[in-house]
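Replying to the earlier thread about multi-chain prediction with a worked example.

Input:
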Amino acid sequence: MARRAAREPQDDASTWLPAYRWMLVARRIDDTMWTLRRQGKGHFVVSSAGHEAIGAAAGLAADMHQDFLAPHYRDLTACLAWGLQPREVMAHYFGRAADPCAGGRQPYAHWGSTERRILTQEGPQPNVVTHAVGVAFANRSLGTNAIVWIGFGDGGAQKGEVHEAMNFASIHRLGVVFCVENNLYTQSVPLRLESSVTDLSTRAAGYGMPGVSVDGMDLPAVHGAAVAAVARARAGDGPSLIEARAYRYMPNTSNDDDTRYRSRAEVETWRKRDPIARVRGLLVESGVLSDESATALENEVAEEVAEAATWAEAQPDAPPEAALLHTWAERPVAALAWMKAQTV
Amino acid sequence: MLGDEELLPTAQVATLEILHSTVMKDPDGPTFEARLRVLASASHADGTSVGAASQVAQVLLDAWKQTQAED
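Result:
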């Protein structure tokens, strides 16, 4: 099976170019969804703005031909890196039949794709961590060296299943990367009221695995940690914990009013550390892109996302028969072949 | 949903109706089937969300019966 090796950013700044595009697409999709929501055309929005560098680093470090993604609900960029297309993301947002994640049955940000090895996202967070460790255990049993990248939030990190997952993964030296995306808030609750420690990576020591805290809005910083963790996992040396510190620019979801618990000045301060602007700076300073070509790329992405939104909005809803599709173990009902022919 | 239910995609409306009426009540098999029958007997005249759920409930009911027969 063909594999793409992890890229070495020190050698060539063009390494960041695909990551920059994933990040641009993610941000543009994010902006588009908020606009559609305000226009009364779309429903539930979960924003990834501010988290883009984390998923992009994971995408660069992983092997897209075999590795698994157990995404955090803010991991739109990682899902794009793992192969989701803007049309598919927008179909997921509108809940249409063309939604590859759930056939329209799940609200936005409930990622999932069997063919791309993206584990299904559950509502209760972060249940996916234990499932992902199970996948890693299966990988071991199957004799592959595929790894599983697991994303979860700082709020999720306080839950019991994270302890169980990290403990089990370390005992069995599974090929797993735990990445906690610490954006300082669990919905409206600040970190100081949800965690007894401020450096979440220190918890790794309790499980006998390496842990590192990095600036999650700095692509090269996250990438360096990601490459090391993926290499360790792939070599059979066991899991690692990465704490990627980021900040979400938008409310927790479209059902949240973040002015109740954080100031506009705080948000604006973090916006000055925008991960996308920083990657753009790297590319322009290194000569990989000029200001003009960077702007051209941004315009190209804007057009692609606008087209995807228009396309997705016009797509049909799933037929009732599709209720039996998009499951990991489809029942062998007689009508299944017919239903697949109707909906795929 | 903060009064914006009308924006919910149809498939999610149907899913929520069915989940709340069936598995979230933790029913046994006969009760599950009975609740599906009730939903499947509804129509769009009973409202948009129940109408969408009724169509899906009929599909699930058919599949349920088939698997019961196979077992």
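The radius of gyration of chain A is 20 Å.

Feel free to reuse this layout for your own posts.
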